[in-house]
């Protein structure tokens, strides 16, 4: 057994110990609540991920990232006993590891010829993400990677210094995967812009004028019931935080991904009036373009423009994919997203867990893509979320509110859908029928 206590460094790294056998390694971390950790519920389940040479554990106010000496298969199981969290991971190949080489931090780039690189190495997710982040970062903001030759076990990386996409990656759903939701198989030669453009074309192909008009007339009152439903567990704020021009948050692409996922979950919740169904995994998946098209959103414009673009994508999916295709419903769902963001970390954490549960149920039903969505996106995003300050979500909530107020039907559907003309024509017909 080897152990390490990171508390001496003044960062939220728990004391932990390691044990192993030929097939697995067990990590035990002691996550003792501190006096100032009131925002972290002791009753929340821990979150752990293991892939390639990357391990990460989030629980309460603690984050434990580990660099493994050799690849692993993934997390086998975990348990909680008091303040101790025990996670067992399976090794990719049998054999004993040098536990002194298991160090807290972010995995480095492995160079060819390294004695630890083997032909069957799993994907080094963190290393790849750090490289991508550093390509576009200034020298003052580049992430310091762990140096395998010089790092001691006392060198740890606090949560706030992790790159924003340190664990999250575009879902690697291959063409042979069984899935009723995935639209674009993973191909590293196709960049995010091409994937987004292809998704836009598919949404235009899915546009159904008659379906939209039926939901607009809503003769059975089904859409009206969704609109009237009130989520009692949310505090409905009437005055969102206002942002001055100089007070815009520094957005990360994962903030935009979070908007998509929350919109999808809120739509599913509202359309089911607070319940989930066997179709919830399907609904959440098809409403999140980033999942089904295998790409991550990119920040290319101002914060305000990026949030508007993310919300526009969600509206397009909501008007072409699910059962209820209604502008009014999409607008109310956007308000729900703003409320969740404004409520802060605990509310977001709950929603990410609900999303994960729905996708895992879909994966258990045989959809390979949903399993990969959890592994590549939702699970790591939940870990990233723990590092974000409450202020960032309050500001993001304000931007979502502003975008939902200013987004127009023409912005979403353009001349092909021509939503304004459709609704005016429908209003005239309905008015004549009432006379």
TrEMBL record:
GO MF, one annotated term: unfolded protein binding
Region Disordered, residue ranges: 178-201
Any Gene Ontology biological process: box H/ACA snoRNP assembly
InterPro entries given in the database record: HSP20-like_chaperone (IPR008978), Shq1 (IPR039742), Shq1_C (IPR007009)
Highest taxon above the source species: Eukaryota
Listed name of the protein: Shq1 C-terminal domain-containing protein
Residue span, Shq1 C-terminal domain: 252-413
Family of the protein in this entry: Belongs to the SHQ1 family.
Gene Ontology CC entries for this record: cytoplasm; nucleoplasm
Composition-biased stretches (Basic and acidic residues): 179-201
């Amino acid at each position: 057994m080897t152990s390490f206590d990171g508390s001496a460094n003044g960062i939220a790294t728990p004391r932990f110990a390691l044990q192993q056998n030929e097939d697995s390694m067990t990590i035990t971390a002691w996550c003792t609540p501190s006096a100032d950790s009131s925002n972290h519920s002791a009753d929340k389940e821990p979150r752990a991920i293991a892939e390639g040479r990357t391990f990460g554990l989030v629980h309460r106010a603690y984050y434990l990232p580990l660099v493994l000496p050799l690849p692993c298969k993934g997390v086998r199981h975990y348990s909680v006993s008091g303040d101790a969290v025990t996670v067992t991971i399976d090794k990719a190949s049998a054999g004993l590891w040098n536990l002194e080489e298991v160090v807290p931090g972010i995995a480095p780039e492995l160079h060819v010829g390294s004695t630890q690189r083997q032909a069957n190495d799993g994907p080094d997710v963190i290393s790849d993400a750090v490289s991508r982040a550093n390509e576009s970062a200034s020298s003052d903001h580049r992430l310091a990677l762990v140096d395998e030759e010089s790092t001691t076990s006392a060198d740890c990386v606090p949560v706030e210094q992790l790159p924003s996409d340190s664990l999250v990656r575009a879902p690697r759903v291959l063409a042979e995967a069984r899935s009723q939701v995935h639209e674009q198989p993973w191909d590293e030669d196709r960049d995010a812009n091409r994937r987004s453009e292809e998704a836009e074309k598919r949404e235009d192909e899915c546009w159904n004028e008659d379906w939209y008009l039926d939901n607009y007339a809503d003769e059975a009152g089904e859409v009206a019931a969704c609109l009237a439903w009130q989520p009692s567990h949310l505090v409905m704020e009437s005055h969102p935080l206002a942002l001055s021009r100089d007070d815009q948050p520094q957005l990360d692409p994962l903030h935009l991904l979070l908007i998509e996922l929350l919109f999808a979950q809120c739509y599913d919740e509202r359309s089911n009036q607070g319940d989930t169904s066997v179709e919830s995994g399907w609904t959440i998946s098809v409403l999140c373009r980033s999942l089904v098209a295998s790409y991550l959103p990119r920040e290319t414009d101002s914060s305000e423009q990026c949030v508007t673009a993310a919300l526009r994508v969600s509206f397009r999916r909501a008007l072409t994919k699910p059962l209820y295709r209604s502008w009014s419903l999409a607008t109310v769902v956007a308000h729900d997203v703003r409320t969740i963001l404004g409520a802060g970390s605990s509310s977001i954490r709950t929603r990410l867990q609900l999303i994960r549960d729905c996708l895992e149920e879909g994966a258990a039903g045989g959809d390979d893509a949903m399993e990969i969505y959890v592994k590549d996106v939702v699970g790591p995003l939940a870990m990233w979320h723990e590092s974000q300050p409450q202020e960032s979500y309050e500001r993001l909530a304000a931007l979502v509110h502003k975008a939902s107020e200013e987004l127009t039907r023409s912005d979403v559907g353009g001349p092909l859908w021509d939503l304004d003309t459709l609704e005016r024509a429908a209003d005239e017909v309905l008015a004549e029928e009432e006379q």
